[in-house]
Amino acid sequence: MVNDQVDRFFEVLADPTRRQVVRLLGEGPQRAGQLAVAAGVSSPAMSRHLRILLVAGLVADERVVEDARVRVFRLRPEPVVAVQAWLDQVQAHWQEQLGAFKRHVEQTGESS
């Protein structure tokens, strides 16, 4: 499950516009129109990107009480937490490998 979520995260964020949307939403919730202007894309293109981000679970949307036609988008923390956990595992593995290599070099250097 976690690996599927991580794979989907990277697959969805392979697109530079979607990465930009995530960066923009990192500053706070925004409407689709605001995101389209900031990203320099048309409203229909932004709608397609947001739909992909919604289906992947990277963003959530909420209706504005004053106007049910307006939706505000925000980042969901769960996918980011899953990716961070995966990155922590990768880092721990490489730390272990580099530590073993250092010990090997130190041991072979002492025996020379």
From TrEMBL:
Q: Which residues form the HTH arsR-type domain?
A: 1-98
Task: Give the matching CDD domains.
Answer: HTH_ARSR (cd00090)
Q: List, alphabetically, the InterPro entries matched.
A: ArsR-like_HTH, HTH_ArsR_DNA-bd_dom, WH-like_DNA-bd_sf, WH_DNA-bd_sf
Q: Name one GO molecular function term.
A: DNA-binding transcription factor activity
Q: Which SMART domains match?
A: HTH_ARSR (SM00418)
The name this protein goes by in its record: Winged helix-turn-helix transcriptional regulator
Q: Which organism is it from?
A: Kribbella qitaiheensis
